[in-house]
């Protein structure tokens, strides 16, 4: 490939994150100005976590819809078949809600820690026909935040269990563009695995570290490092470009099906998309016969 061809073909995908980074830095500054001069809450600047959620909510409220019109791989098809009791991790303001079929879903829980996205989320849940079946939870995916919120909502009883959830309660868990930003990812993803019923499905669409050793590109992997050093996680609400989410998912527990594929593996923001089925409980033959009698 000539340098000219490279500039025309590969450079745009490598430089696209720079636009998003600049946009996020702009919204971060606007959030600070809003908190100080409009809301008149200068002390809120000391709560950096909330400030970053607020700033990311600005980015998402302004651009989320446009950034959700097209998604990699079979994601929309996978979402359209979700059924039963579903947990959607980090639904934002519900940009991908129209991709689900509410007739197949008996209850849906959205774990969204950014309070500024909740009004949009509730509005979209109504517009898309979920009505009272939708439960917006103000919490993150990390067990210390999610488990108490599920307990409070009445779907999970952890009283007397030291706040731990060991049983599976969800038929499906959807992780779309969110695991890149959850704290202590291995523990958080294992916590989600535990909340899946045996035989339950996890639908995944996540951007990950560029797989430069196999089908990726070293220059794209290098650019991920550059954007990280320029402040990507800070301005993007904790999102990490260099996460090995594939490995965290594989190591979360036993799966009957682990079907993930790379989309855009040579890009600076490559995705893994697919479905994972949690191992079913295989009944001992004599026990199964006794149950049948
Ligand atoms: C890039 S947006 C994706 C929104 C939605 N899943 C979609 O794809 O349209 C990431 C979302 O994850 C949320 N988020 C950030 N940290 C989180 C955490 N620890 N647990 C759950 N969600 C989180 C953000 O507030 C934001 O709404």
From TrEMBL:
Give me the segments passing through the membrane: 18-38
* Alphabetical list of Pfam families matching this protein: Methyltransf_23
Q: What is this protein called?
A: S-adenosyl-L-methionine-dependent methyltransferase
Q: Which organism is it from?
A: Cucurbitaria berberidis CBS 394.84
Q: Which residues form a coiled coil?
A: none
Instruction: Write down the PANTHER family for this protein, in alphabetical order.
Output: METHYLTRANSFERASE LIKE 7A (PTHR45036:SF1), METHYLTRANSFERASE LIKE 7B (PTHR45036)
Keywords per UniProt: Membrane, Transmembrane, Transmembrane helix
């Amino acid at each position: 490939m000539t340098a000219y061809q490279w500039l025309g073909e590969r450079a745009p995908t490598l430089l696209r994150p720079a636009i998003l980074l600049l946009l996020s830095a702009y919204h971060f500054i606007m959030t600070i100005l809003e908190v100080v001069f409009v809301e008149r809450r200068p002390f809120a600047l000391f709560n950096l976590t909330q400030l970053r959620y607020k700033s990311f909510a600005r980015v998402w409220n302004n651009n989320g819809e446009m950034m959700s019109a097209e998604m990699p791989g079979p994601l929309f098809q996978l979402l359209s078949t979700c059924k039963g009791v579903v947990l959607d991790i980090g639904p934002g303001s519900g940009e991908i809600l129209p991709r689900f079929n509410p007739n197949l879903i008996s209850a849906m829980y959205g774990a969204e820690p950014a309070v500024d996205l909740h009004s949009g989320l509730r509005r979209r849940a109504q517009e898309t026909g979920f009505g009272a079946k939708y439960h917006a939870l103000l919490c993150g995916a990390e067990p210390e935040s999610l488990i108490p919120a599920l307990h409070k909502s009445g779907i999970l009883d952890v009283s007397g269990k030291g706040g731990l959830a060991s049983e599976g309660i969800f038929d499906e868990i959807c992780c779309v563009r969110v695991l890149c930003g959850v704290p202590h990812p291995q523990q958080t993803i294992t916590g989600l695995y535990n909340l899946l019923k045996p035989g339950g499905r996890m639908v995944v669409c996540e951007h990950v570290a560029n797989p430069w050793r196999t089908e990726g590109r070293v220059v794209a992997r290098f650019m991920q490092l550059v954007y990280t050093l320029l402040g990507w996680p800070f301005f993007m609400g904790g999102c990490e470009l260099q996460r090995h989410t594939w490995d965290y998912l594989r190591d979360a527990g036993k799966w009957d099906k682990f079907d993930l594929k790379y989309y855009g593996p040579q890009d600076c923001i490559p995705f893994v998309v697919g479905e994972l089925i949690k191992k079913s409980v295989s009944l001992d033959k004599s026990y199964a016969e006794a149950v049948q009698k």
